[in-house]
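User: I'm putting together a teaching handout on how multi-component assemblies are represented. Below are the sequence lines for each component of a complex, exactly as they appear in our records. Could you produce the 3D structure of the whole assembly as structure tokens, so the students can see both representations side by side? Please keep the chain order the same as the input.
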Amino acid sequence: MPAEFVLRGAHVVEAGCTPRLLDLLIRDGKIAGRLAPGMPVDASIPILQADGLHAFPGLIDAHVHFGFGEKITEYSTETVYAAQGGFTSILGYFLNNESYADVYEREQEYARARCHVDYGFHFSVANEEHVRDMPDYVGRYGVTSFKYFMNFKGEEGRYLGLDGTDDGYFHDLMKTAGALPGVQIVCHTENIEIVNRLRRRAQAIEQPTLKDWANAKPPFTEAESCVRAMYFAQQLGAHLYIPHLSTRLALDEVRRWRSRYPQVRVETCPHYLTHDEDSDLGSMGKANPPFRSKDDVEAMWEGLRDGSIDVVASDHVPRKRATKERPFWLASQGFPGTATILPVLLSEGYHKGRLTLPRIAELLTEAPARIFGMLPRKGTLRVGADADITLVDLQRSRTVRAEELGSYSDYSLYDGWTLKGWPVRTIVRGVTVMQDGRIVGRPGHGQYLARPLDR
Ligand SMILES: [Zn+2]
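Assistant: Of course. Below is the structure of the complete assembly, with chains in the same order as your input.
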């Protein structure tokens, strides 16, 4: 693709406005102009004709995990997978007990040469050193979001090789974050003390189902933790982001709390929109949080529609199918998910009249860009933004086959599902990296997303 071209004939989809025909002038990887449809341009400028397609700002998956695929090559496989799904940026979590100064250098070494799309990092804070070094991580590495696992308290954390934290630690963390305006604290909200008891009892069940798994982690354990996290955030001035929200009970608490303290953002994941606890997938359907009731699924759609859920992200975990096909309590949790987010939202949301295209654009582009400090460079097609563009064929039906999507993982929760509405071209900073299901970009094109606070 040349350094300068015009994207012509597509309907541009942006948060808050009706999709409309608009030509985009791309120059040196940036959006250089927004032109009236068909407006004549200098004959030397090539035209990329996109009639009948919809142009979204490049999609952002704000929740993927690094370190669960094949270490090192995952930066290649999982960014290929992202590009296949129309994603131009991903933000990945690390969970380490060592200093993130070391983690950062090492992972950058691997990532720089391999990524096909732009990538950024979230660090999970698990010990005193991490909290102490937060300002440093922000300043030196442009990492402005930190995850805290409320479920890895005490013994549970020590079991995982972490120091094992408590509410005093959480208090310090939120206080430190409160002094760093713009930093997001991502809280995994789960009352593990209750879950531990319920899970012990559930483990006596001989043939456990996904419903037994859900019963071991009832909505109360998510909602109560959300309330505590919101209280900590409000009292200490931290910005809170609740990932993978799954229950109506918790969402209703968030709605109530926001009138008291607005700095609370909520994410849900595609599987909480398509699967419930009555699913017969057995250990293949094991996730944390678990699949919930049909009413909870409905509540997630309502939350997307009314704006009380801000972001949809995958919680992408690229493990092999074999790690799921084990005795229930030993099976791994989570799924690969980035590449199927958009087809799920288009097929189950847009085509079923539950979500509009601008709302989908907001959930997958502008909102994560704003929350995680990437606007105005990402998440928008305004002049000056990076020319990250996802071209979508809304009418295209395709049956999901994991092996066509490029992840290290060898299955999809949606294998065999025919979904309507697929990305057909992924453009990262003016360069096409995926076209019609073929990867045409090169490894190393993806750039690191430093997210400065001064904006
Ligand atoms: Zn996750």
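A couple of points students might notice: The mean pLDDT is 96. The pocket of zinc ion is lined by residues 63, 65, 315 (CB under 6 Å).
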